[in-house]
Amino acid sequence: MASAHALSVLCEDVEGIISRISGMFTRRAFNIVSISSGRTEVDGVNRITIIVEGEETVVEQITKQLNKLIPVIKVSRHDPDTLVARGLLMVKVSADNSNRMQVVEAAKLFRAHVVDVGPDSLIIESTGTPSKLQALLDVLEPFGIRELVESSVTAMSRGPKAMYPAKL
């Protein structure tokens, strides 16, 4: 059975890099489970976190193909034992005077934060592993989920080793 793998890609901050990476996945018929991109501590260098599902040979091929792209500086595959991965969830939940405190208490159990209060709804923000975010949704479901948005996963490996030498 295929399992999920987290890859971090350091690349130059150039226009169209996400398009080039997703195009490589499309041409090779690889599937992206999640992709996120952001700046790093080094000016002009972005870090893209890609979650893929596949057998070992498929993940090796993905890594090789990513390394061939010109603006890519480095591709690193995370060891599941040292992986720290988090996503962001924002969810609008039905809540009026009769159940608002119950919804707030449910959010607190997951260390989530109420970021907006309306007359008949709350917006709750939470970060965590995909399984934690799903558990929060499961608890909030009976109250009525009106809207939700979940970000892609961002990941780093534990320990002192960095992907890219920090500026001195």
UniProtKB/TrEMBL annotation:
Molecular function in Gene Ontology:
acetolactate synthase activity; acetolactate synthase regulator activity
Cellular component (GO) terms are: cytosol
Sorted alphabetically, which keywords does the UniProt record give?
A: Amino-acid biosynthesis, Branched-chain amino acid biosynthesis, Transferase
ACT domain spans which residues?
Answer: 6-80
Q: Which domain of life is it from?
A: Bacteria
| Family membership noted in the UniProt record | Belongs to the acetolactate synthase small subunit family.
| Function as written in the Swiss-Prot or TrEMBL entry | Catalyzes the conversion of 2 pyruvate molecules into acetolactate in the first common step of the biosynthetic pathway of the branched-amino acids such as leucine, isoleucine, and valine.
Question: What protein name applies here?
Answer: Acetolactate synthase small subunit
**Origin organism lineage:** Bacteria, Bacillati, Actinomycetota, Actinomycetes, Mycobacteriales
